[in-house]
Specification:
By secondary structure, the chain is of the alpha/beta class. 41% of the residues lie in helices and 11% in strands. Residues 1-11 and 245-258 have low confidence and may be disordered.
């Protein structure tokens, strides 16, 4: 009797392997991972797939709740989005809007991230970002209102005069594309990068504490990693320490940059 030649098994279907093995493996290792990390692990399993096909399957995985969206090309095991405490800055925003209703600006306060600091801050700094031509009109009004205001303070001024008081405001020139239209509230991704830049400049906290704030924030709720990285590149902020966090948290947070 003639035997039927059987086809050689090609292993489990790609989607099943991705959904049931690869993504659970990455979620166990890390809170956030990129599509490149997914491709790397697939390669370790001797599976190679076109980028477009992989993105389609990852989109399905997000719809099914297997992974969560963390920005373009980024995924997360954290289901709950990060919720930023806006209360400390709302009165300030209203005050500025009432005086300058047509002004484009964004702002944040160190009080908003105080719960993530190792040493709780007793006094806070409010940062406001405006167009270049509005810097000094905003400064003059704020001083009249009783704020202690610094406009783009440089190293010499910081060393000589800067001190965090009860109503300290730092005004800097900035863009507003990261800010939700009409809210004037800086998103958490901008705040974290700004903190890395401002903390050493203004002696708000040391680098390790600022990095700790970012780590705790990343763990406490899902943020947009793509936006975080984009903003960091735009402002030349060094966030390479994120790739080393896993060494200190039992591989709970591994970021593979695109």
């Amino acid at each position: 009797m003639r035997q039927t030649k059987q086809k050689k098994s090609l292993g489990p279907p790609l989607k099943s392997t991705l959904f049931n093995t690869i993504l659970p493996e990455l979620k166990q290792q890390s809170f956030y991972f990129s599509i490149k990390a997914v491709q790397r692990v697939l390669g370790e399993h001797s599976i190679h797939v076109a980028d477009q096909t992989l993105r389609k399957y990852l989109s399905q995985a997000m719809t099914m709740g297997i992974v969560n969206d963390a920005g373009y090309g980024w995924y997360s095991s954290i289901a709950k989005p990060f919720v930023l405490n806006a209360d400390p800055i709302l009165k300030f925003v209203k005050k500025v809007k009432d005086k300058f209703p047509l002004l484009d600006f964004s702002c944040w306060s160190t009080q908003q991230i105080n719960s993530f600091t190792h040493h709780m801050l007793a006094k806070f700094v409010t940062f406001i970002y405006v167009d270049q031509d509005a810097l000094f009109s905003v400064r003059d009004w704020m001083r009249h209102e009783g704020f202690e205001v610094y406009v783009s303070p440089g190293k010499a001024e910081i060393e000589k005069n800067f001190e965090v008081g009860e109503n300290t405001v730092v005004i800097r020139r900035g863009c507003f594309k990261e800010t939700k239209k009409g809210s004037h509230l800086a998103p958490i991704e901008k705040i974290l990068v700004d903190l890395l830049i401002e903390a050493p400049k203004l002696y708000l906290m040391d680098d390790s504490e600022a990095e700790g704030v970012i780590e705790k924030t990343l763990e406490s709720g899902r943020i947009n990693i793509a936006v975080l990285f984009s903003y960091a590149r735009q402002h030349r902020a060094n966030i390479s320490f994120l790739n080393n966090i896993s060494l200190f948290s039992a591989q709970k947070l591994i970021l593979h940059s695109k």
